[in-house]
Amino acid sequence: MKKTLFIISLCALFFISPTSVFANNPVSHAESHAGIHFISGDEENDSAQHEKNKNATYPSKSTNKTIENEKRNSSGTASISHLPQTGDKAESPLPSIGMILISIYFIQNKKKKRGKNTMKMKNLVIATVITGSAIVASPAAQVFAEETNTANSHAFVSLTAGDTTTPVDPIDPSEPGGGTGNTGSLTIDNVTPFEFGTHQISSTSETYTSTAKNPNVQVTDRRGEGQGWTLQVALSEFKDQTDASKVLKGAELTIPKGELKTTAGNVSDAPNNFASTLAADGSGSAIIMQANEKTGMGTWEDLFNNQEIKLTVPAGNYSGDYSSTLNWSLVDAPNA
Fold first, then answer.
1. Domain locations in the chain?
2. Helix, strand, or coil here: 282?
3. Which spans are transmembrane here (predicted)?
4. Which of 18, 135, 223, 275 is deepest in the core (most CB within 10 A)?
5. CA dihedral (13, 18, 22, 25) positive or negative
C-alpha cells in the first residue's frame, strides 16, 4: 500500500508541475513594423511629410494592449482578437488530468473489497496514470507532421532513323575481309568468303573445313520501328574458273549455327540464327538469321566457327580451281 501511494504521489507531483506543455518546443515571437514612402508631385510637401514620418514612433506592445483594453471597455466587445505576445505560455492540462485520475483511484479503492480485485484495480489505475502522463506529456511538435513540397519536371528526346549513308563496320573483322559497303536503314554489313584451301583428288568422298579467320555475317537494322527481318542465302554451282563446263557434282556446303554478337549497350532482343546445309546446284536457299517483330534492332553478327563450315565433295569430280557464289538476301520482314 505504501509503495502504491508513493508511486501515485510521484505522478501527482509530475502532473502539478508548472512546466509548460511547450517547454520542449519553445517558440519565439516578436513584433516588427513595415513602412513605405512614395515621392511624387510636390517635392517640398512630400519632403516635409517624409521628415514627419521619420520622427513618428510606432506603438509598443504595451501601448497596443492599452488601446485594445480601451476599445474593449468602450464597446463591451473587443474590436480585434488578442494575439500571443512574447513570453506568453499556454496553460498545461496535466495538473487537471492528474487530479482527476488520482480521484478516480481513491473512489474505486473505497468501493472495492480488499483482496485480488483490489490489487488488480490498484495496478490498473497506476498503469492508467502512467500511460496518460506519457501520452499527454509527449511534445506538441509530434502532432504536426512535417510538410513536404513536391514538384514534377519532364525530360524529352527525339530519335529518328539512323544514318543511311555510312557503311557499318563489322564487329569482328574477318580474314579475308567481307565488308559489303552497303548503306541504308537495313543492311548486310559483312559476309566472309569461305575458303577451303587446296586438296588432292580422292577416291572417296571428302569433307573440307574453311580456313577463314572470324568468318561471319552481319546485319544492321537502323529503321527504329522493330518490323523484323530475314537473312537467307542460296548457293550456286561450283564451276572451274578457267573452264566453266567443269562443275563439282554433288557438292554440299554446311553453314553452322554461329554465335550471335551485338554492339555494346544494345538493349534489343536478339534475332534467331540457324544452321543449314545447301546443295551446290542453285536449287534452293536457307534462312541463316531471322528477327521477329520488336527484335534484332541495331547491329547483329552471326560469328561462325571455321572448323564447322564444311564443304563435302564426292569422288569422281574433275580437278580444277572451283568457285561458287553465295547469294545473301535481306528481306525487311520476319517471314521470307
1. 1-16+91-137, 186-331
2. coil
3. 92-108, 124-145
4. 223
5. negative
